[in-house]
Amino acid sequence: MIENILPSGIAAAELLEYPEGLRAHPAEEHLIAKSVEKRRRDFIGARHCARQALAQLGEPEVPIGKGERGMPLFPRGIVGSLTHCDGYRAAALAHALRFRSVGIDAEPHAELPDGVLESVSLPEERQWLRETESPLHLDRLLFCAKEATYKAWFPLTLRWLGFEDAHITFTVDAADGDSGSGTFHTKLLVPGGTNDGGRPLLDFDGRWQVAGGLILTAIATA
Which GO molecular function, any one, fits this protein according to its record (predicted)? Predict the structure, then answer.
């Protein structure tokens, strides 16, 4: 499903069911040696998807380490993002010569728990939610888009980006009771200097989809 909202040139792989017998790469096992089973399965499943995406790009299926704030460490010349939630793991990777950054996120298509919206949204975003009639759980969509924004931001800056540091607006191309699609625009509200020598980050454009009980968001910055 994730490939539906990614541009050409990005390799993606996903797991809706956890394969029997799937194990951690030996060089990654130490990263999750003390983790609970759910954390292990999410870690292993997402990195399994990442190696499938590497193969699609013609790259060797190497171990994927963990950097600052849990950032996945892809091979030199590769950018990408991982995501997981209940019943879903995915990866999206690309060559850095073609894309500067990638951020994806997956969330269950369900209302946010009580009290969460106020801590992850701006007043303007909450106003939009109040004024927009939709059969979709737009509050969770907003959260999902914020997560994708952070994943696209952090590898280029190595700086924290709070929920209050990004203002997201949406377009809805189609929506019914349990599916929909559209685009979103993230305006960054903090200085966007980067560590790759490129132009400062001012905003991101992304796509979203609701299908199969999941919300998926994706940003790919050239």
Answer: holo-[acyl-carrier-protein] synthase activity
